[in-house]
Amino acid sequence: MPELPEVETVRRGLEQQADGFVVDEVCVLRSRAVAAPKGDPDGFAAGLAGCCISAWRRRGKYLIASLSRGSEPAGELGAHLRMTGQFQWFKQAEKPACAHTRVQFFGRHGPQAEARELRFVDLRAFGELWFVPMGFATEQIITGLQRLGPEPFSTAFNANYLRQRLKGSSRPIKNALLDQSLVAGVGNIYADESLFLSGIQPHNASGKLSLLQLEKLHSCLVEVLQASIGAGGTTFSDFRDLKGNNGNYGGVAWVYRRGGEPCRKCGSILRREKLGGRSSHWCPTCQC
Known about the structure:
By secondary structure, this protein is α+β, with helices and mostly antiparallel strands. The strands form two sheets. Strands 2-9-5-4-3-1-7-8-6 form a nine-stranded mixed beta sheet. A hairpin with a 2-residue loop joins β4 and β5. α1 runs parallel beside α7 and α4 packs across α7. The chain is elongated.
């Protein structure tokens, strides 16, 4: 599943290439891709028709864009890529829609009003799109936003916050990092990578970590996320950016998906274990 760096990479691509896209027509090819208005793909299409899509932002793993008609606000468009969702940006009629295309947005872009298509493609069909009408708070329609903790780059996310939230918890620290109510946007890849850099084993009880360890974990998590954003995210299976390019962080990952291989720091054989139903990768020497 795309994590924060991959979603941020998509957001930047949408902002740089498709900002100001004016939608003339929406074609929903799979109604389940529309989470709101639920069961009403025609209502989704009508809500977006004639809108300018701009000001893309990210909250956790969600993408949200502002909609306007002329100079008047017209609601918001929300998206969650889930496991294999992708946005693709084409000149109209440049490339036929593949079998996994779920929603097509046809319209105009740029000072020359060039005919363009924004396409939502999703191999496993778990991705979701929302239309948030005017008069509704974003969280009322995209209810998953209500459960998100602070962003990793925010001032609200720090070692003292972690100590307070994790106090007395016997939950493994790896599992805690995957909890979106603790910190938004972190998943399996960057939890493993940040724990390696901070020297903490994934199964250590989160409530027993010292403030010094939490400070190190906080700084390493931010460092790893920033490095991955700079590399365009990670591609191990399906992730692509708006141009169809793979993310490059996976080639330099310290431990993720490297179980059985030598540690890049000490040469010890990296371990891979199931923890809370998810694979965890770690070094028995560098992490204690």
